[in-house]
């Protein structure tokens, strides 16, 4: 139509193109806003997570932790104290090869408490002092290893708590105190055996103990009644010490004892009291290898006991060390006629007596030489003594004759007047 508006094909294409542009703009705007809001949400969540405090029980920085195994290892980290942020799930704790030096009271007290801790290994951490109550607030502790520490001061209440009379018995079942004697320990001022014994029997804290190891501590003896407060003991290991006798130790109350290790000590003989106590334990196994047994008349009862008993493991390996004529003889092959008490001295003592004899002979030779060189003066001196004695005796004889004759007596009296 002339002069009117025409909506032909060109106008229709324009309208379609405009609709597509508008639709794309709306879509892009919505996507941009959606992406912006998603990014903002992610950033907010990340900042919120990072702002949260660390969860309790996370692993201490110098340690390695395994929650699945309930184990924490702080090995060779040069720690000077027990980490404060131990996870409460820990059951096995290794603090070995560190620089702890001192273990104070309540060293493992935590909030929340370490109720699950069962095994504690402190070996080789240069511990010198263990104070009273050092292992308090560990109600599940069953195994404790303090080996290879130079313990100069082991408190009598280290295992029983600061108040031994009021505290409950220790839950310990296994205690390892191997090689804990410090090199500079002064035996003249303090008794290492007494210090260990006081910690073992204080307050009956260890009456539930099943295993006790005291190897490589140069123990010379076991104090009297050191084992009396541990009636549940099943395994006692005293290897590689310097024990010379078991006379003052009583095993009578250890009715559950299953193994007694006495290898590599300085035992010479076991006396009748000890033999009877060991024979009275129903299920014990005794190990006596590598001791310097003295096969003399004092060994008769022990040899007879060895031939009858079954408690000594490897008894066919036991041999004599002294005297020399009995060296390497098997104890089970000895008879009572082989065991005598001849005064056979050890080689060192024999050497001492030979040296003493040489010295005395030399002194005697010098004395005789002096006498020979002064023989003339000595002869003159002896003659003078003889003459003096003769004159003295003649005077006595003269007085005797005067007293025996009354006439001479009167004559003597008149002449005196």
From TrEMBL:
Its domain of life?
A: Eukaryota
Per the record, its GO cellular-component terms are: plasma membrane
Q: Does the keyword Iron-sulfur apply?
A: no
Domain LRRNT, residue spans? 58-92
Question: What PROSITE patterns does UniProt report for this protein, alphabetically?
Answer: LRR
Q: Which residues form the LRRCT domain?
A: 291-342
Q: Which Pfam families match?
A: LRR_8, LRRCT, LRRNT
Please list every transmembrane segment annotated in the UniProt record, as residue ranges: 353-373
- Which keywords appear in this protein's UniProt record, sorted alphabetically? Leucine-rich repeat, Membrane, Repeat, Signal, Transmembrane, Transmembrane helix
Is Membrane a UniProt keyword of this protein? yes
Matching entries from InterPro entries are given as: Cys-rich_flank_reg_C, Leu-rich_rpt, Leu-rich_rpt_typical-subtyp, LRR_dom_sf, LRRNT, Wnt_signaling_inhibitor
Q: Which SUPFAM superfamilies match?
A: L domain-like (SSF52058)
Signal sequence, renumbered to the chain: 1-32
> Which BP terms in the Gene Ontology apply to this protein?
negative regulation of canonical Wnt signaling pathway
Name of the protein: Trophoblast glycoprotein
């Amino acid at each position: 139509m002339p002069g009117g508006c025409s909506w032909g094909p060109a106008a229709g294409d324009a309208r379609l193109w405009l609709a597509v542009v508008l639709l794309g703009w709306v879509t892009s705007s919505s996507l941009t806003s959606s992406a912006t809001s998603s990014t903002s949400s992610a950033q907010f969540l990340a900042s919120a997570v990072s702002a949260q405090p660390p969860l309790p029980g996370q692993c201490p920085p110098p340690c390695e932790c395994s929650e699945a195994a309930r184990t924490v290892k702080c090995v060779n980290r040069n720690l000077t104290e027990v980490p404060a942020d131990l996870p409460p799930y820990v059951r096995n704790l290794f603090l070995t090869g560190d620089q702890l030096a001192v273990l104070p009271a309540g060293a493992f007290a935590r909030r929340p408490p370490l109720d699950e801790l069962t095994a504690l290994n402190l070996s080789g951490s240069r511990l010198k002092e263990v104070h009273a109550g050092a292992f308090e607030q560990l109600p599940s502790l069953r195994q404790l290893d303090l080996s290879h520490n130079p313990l100069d001061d082991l408190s009598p209440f280290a295992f029983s708590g600061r108040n031994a009379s009021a505290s409950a018995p220790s839950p310990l079942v296994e205690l390892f105190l191997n090689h804990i004697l410090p090199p500079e320990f002064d035996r003249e001022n303090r008794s290492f055996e007494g210090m260990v014994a006081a910690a073992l029997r204080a307050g009956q804290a260890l009456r539930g103990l099943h295993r006790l190891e005291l190897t490589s501590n140069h123990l010379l003896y076991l104090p009297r009644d050191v084992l009396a407060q541990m009636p549940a003991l099943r395994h006692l290991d005293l290897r590689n010490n310097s024990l010379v006798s078991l006379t003052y130790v009583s095993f009578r109350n250890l009715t559950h004892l299953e193994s007694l290790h006495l290898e590599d000590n300085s035992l010479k003989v076991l006396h009748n009291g000890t033999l009877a106590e060991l024979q009275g334990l129903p299920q014990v196994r005794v190990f006596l290898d590598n001791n310097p047994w003295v096969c003399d008349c004092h060994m008769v009862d022990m040899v007879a006991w060895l031939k009858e008993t079954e408690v000594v493991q490897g008894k066919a390996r036991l041999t004599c060390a002294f005297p020399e004529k009995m060296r390497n003889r098997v104890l089970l092959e000895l008879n009572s006629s082989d065991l005598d008490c001849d005064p056979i001295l050890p080689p060192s003592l024999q050497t001492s007596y030979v040296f003493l004899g040489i010295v005395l002979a030399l002194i005697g030779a010098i004395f005789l030489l002096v006498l020979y060189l002064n023989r003339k003066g000595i002869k003159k001196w002896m003659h003078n003594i003889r003459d003096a004695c003769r004159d003295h005796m003649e005077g006595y004889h003269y007085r005797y004759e005067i007293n025996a004759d009354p006439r001479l007596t009167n004559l003597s009296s008149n002449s005196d007047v």
